[in-house]
Design a protein that fits this description.
455 residues, alpha/beta, FAD/NAD(P)-binding domain, Enolase-like, domain 1, 3 domains, seven-stranded mixed sheet, 21 strands, 36% helix, binds flavin-adenine dinucleotide, binds nicotinamide-adenine-dinucleotide, FAD-dependent oxidoreductase, redox-active center, NADP, oxidoreductase
Length: 455
C-alpha cells in the first residue's frame, strides 16, 4: 500500500470535482484527484457534450455516420482540458481507481491510502433504471450508450419526457427517426407549463409523438422489436428503447457510513455550505441530488474552495441558477418560475411579458415562436422564463441580474444594438414602467403645465 498525505482529496473528476481541484491546486493546496472512469465525467463523455454535438449535427444536415464522427470529435477536442495530463501538469496527484472511505479521515483507492485534511465527494450520478417488469429482459439504451449507436434507430421509443428525453427526441427526429416519447406525468414538468407546451407543440409539429400521463408499466421484446405498455393500457412498439427517467446519485460502495457521511439513501446530505455530516467532508454536484447541471456543479466547486482551501465560510446559493433545455426552440429558466413565485409571494409579483413575434430580429429571421416572462417583486426580477430561438444565450444577462440583485430599470435602461433578439429582455423590463409613464394622468398634467408655462 502506498500512503499519501494531502490537503484535499477530491473523489470524482467530473464538472464539480475538476473545478474544485483545478482551483485548489493553483491556489497552492496539495490535491489528490481520484477518478474511476473517464476524466471529465458525465458531461464530457455521456452528457452535455455528446448531446449538444448530436443536436447540432442533426440541425446541420449531417448523415448518421458523419454525426457520430462529429460527436466523437467534439469529445476528443474538449477532453485534454479535463484530462489527467493537464491536471498532473497543474500539480495534482491523479489516481484512476474507485475510491472508498475506510474511516472519517481516510480513503482507499486501489493500492493507495489517502489521508487528507478535507475530502470532497463529487461522484456525480448515473441513469436511474426503474423497476419496470420486463425491462431487464430487453436491450435498452441510456445516456451512457446512446451516443455509441452505430445503426440509426428506425423508431426510437423514449421513456421519460424530461430534458434528456426531449433533447434526444429532438436530435433523433432531425435524422429522420420516428420517435415516441412516453411521459408518466407532464413532459418538461419542472419548467413553466406555458413554455413547455410551446416546445412540445413544436416537437409534435416536427413529427414526434409525445404521450403524457403514460407511465411505462411493462416492457417486452416481440419480433425483434421493443414493446412498451403504459398504465392506461397503451401499447407502443419501436426498434430501440431509451430510458431517461432521472438520475441515481453515485453513493454506493463508498464507505460513507464508515466516514460518518449521512445520506438520505438517494443522495449525500449537505448543508447550504456544502458540508456533509462529517465536518471534514464536503460534497457537490449531482451526488447531492439538487439541481443536476454542469454549471451548478462548477459553481459549487468554486464555492467549496473557500472552506476547503482557505477555511473561510461560504454559502451556495440556489436562487440565481439558470438552466436551458436545447430543444427547438430552446427553453431557458433562471430563478423562480411564475408558479413557484406565486406560491411564495401570491399576488405581490409582477409578470412582464414580451413575445418574439414583436421582436424585429425574430421577424427578420422568421423565428417568431416564443416569449419571455419576467417575474418581479417590487421592481426586482426574481425569475425569468425564456422560450424561443437562442433562449440559452438570451438568459445570460438575467443570470447576472439575479445574482447581483439588479433592478428592472437596469435592464430597461440598457442600450442594445438593433436589431437583436436581446432587445426582447429590454422590452419585457420596459413593460413594467410603460403604464407608470404613459398611462399616468398626474404625469400628463405635469407635462402639460411644463409645456404651457416653462419657456
Ligand atoms: C444526456 C445528458 C445531457 C446533459 N446535458 C447537460 C447540459 O446541456 N447542461 C448542463 O448543465 N448539464 C447537463 N447534464 C447534466 C450534467 O452532465 C451533470 O449535472 C454534471 O455532469 C454533474 O457533474 P458532477 O461533477 O456532479 O458529476 P459527473 O460529471 O458525473 O462526475 C462524477 C465522476 O465521479 C466518478 N466517480 C463516481 N464514483 C466514484 C468513486 N467511488 N471513485 C472514483 N470516482 C468516482 C465518475 O466516474 C465520474 O467521472 C446532462 C446530463 C446528461 C445525462
Ligand atoms: N440541457 C440540460 O441542461 C440537460 C439535458 C439533459 C439532462 N440534464 C440533467 O439531467 C437530469 C436528468 O434528466 P432526465 O430527463 O433523465 O430526468 P428528469 O427527472 O428531469 O425527467 C424524467 C422524466 O421521466 C418521467 N418518468 C419517470 N418514470 C417514468 C415511467 N415509468 N414512465 C414514463 N415516464 C416516467 C418523469 O415523470 C420525468 O418527467 C435533468 O434533471 C437535468 O438536471 C440537463
Amino acid at each position: 500500500m502506498t500512503k499519501i498525505k494531502t490537503d484535499i482529496c477530491v473523489i470524482g473528476a467530473g464538472s464539480g470535482g475538476l473545478s474544485l481541484a483545478a482551483g485548489a491546486v493553483q491556489m497552492g493546496a496539495k490535491v489528490v484527484l481520484i477518478e474511476k472512469g473517464e476524466m471529465g465525467g458525465d458531461c464530457l463523455n455521456y452528457g452535455c457534450v455528446p448531446s449538444k454535438a448530436l443536436l447540432h449535427a442533426g440541425a446541420a444536415g449531417m448523415d448518421w455516420t458523419a454525426a457520430h464522427h462529429h460527436v466523437k470529435r467534439a469529445i476528443a477536442t474538449i477532453a485534454p482540458h479535463d484530462g489527467q495530463e493537464r491536471f498532473e501538469g497543474l500539480g495534482c496527484i491523479v489516481i484512476r481507481e474507485h475510491a472508498r472511505f475506510t474511516g472519517p479521515r481516510e480513503v482507499v483507492a486501489g493500492d493507495t491510502t489517502i489521508r487528507a485534511k478535507r475530502f470532497v465527494i463529487a461522484t456525480g450520478s448515473r441513469p436511474f433504471v426503474p423497476e419496470v417488469p420486463g425491462l431487464d429482459e430487453v436491450p435498452y439504451l441510456t445516456n451512457e450508450t446512446i451516443f455509441d449507436l452505430v445503426e440509426k434507430p428506425t423508431h426510437l421509443i423514449v421513456i421519460g419526457g424530461g430534458p434528456i428525453g426531449i433533447e434526444m427526441a429532438t436530435a433523433h427526429r432531425r435524422f429522420g427517426c420516428d420517435v415516441t416519447v412516453l411521459e408518466g406525468e407532464k413532459a418538461l414538468g419542472k419548467d413553466d407549463p406555458e413554455a413547455a407546451a410551446l416546445v412540445l407543440d413544436a416537437l409534435r409539429a416536427d413529427g414526434v409523438e409525445i404521450v403524457e400521463n403514460a407511465k411505462a408499466v411493462r416492457v417486452r421484446e416481440t419480433g425483434g422489436k421493443v414493446e412498451v405498455v403504459t398504465e392506461d393500457g397503451g401499447v407502443f412498439t419501436g426498434s430501440h428503447l431509451l430510458i431517461a427517467v432521472g438520475r441515481k446519485a453515485n453513493i454506493d460502495d463508498m464507505g460513507l457510513k464508515d466516514a460518518g457521511v449521512r445520506t438520505d439513501g438517494t443522495a449525500v446530505h449537505v448543508n447550504d455550505r456544502l458540508r456533509t455530516s462529517n465536518r471534514r467532508v464536503y460534497a457537490l454536484g449531482d451526488v447531492t441530488g439538487g439541481l443536476q447541471f454542469t454549471h451548478v456543479a462548477g459553481y459549487q466547486g468554486g464555492v467549496a474552495i473557500r472552506p476547503t482551501v482557505l477555511r473561510l465560510p461560504a454559502k451556495a446559493r440556489t436562487d440565481h441558477l439558470p438552466w436551458c433545455t436545447y430543444s427547438n426552440p430552446e427553453l431557458a429558466q433562471v430563478g423562480m418560475t411564475e408558479a413557484a413565485a406565486r406560491e411564495t409571494y401570491g399576488g405581490r409579483i409582477d409578470v412582464l411579458r414580451a413575445d418574439f413575434a414583436g421582436n424585429d430580429r425574430a421577424v427578420a429571421t422568421g423565428r417568431t415562436d416564443g416569449f419571455i416572462k419576467v417575474i418581479a417583486l417590487r421592481g426586482k426580477p426574481i425569475g425569468v422564463t425564456l422560450v424561443g430561438d437562442h433562449a440559452g444565450e438570451l438568459i445570460a444577462p438575467w443570470s447576472l441580474v439575479l445574482s447581483k440583485g439588479l433592478k428592472l430599470s437596469d435592464i430597461s435602461g440598457m442600450v442594445l444594438p438593433y436589431p437583436t433578439l436581446a432587445e426582447i429582455s429590454k422590452r419585457a423590463a420596459g413593460n413594467y414602467f410603460a403604464p407608470k409613464l404613459f398611462e399616468n394622468d398626474k404625469l400628463k398634467r405635469v407635462v402639460r403645465v411644463i409645456q404651457r408655462f416653462v419657456p
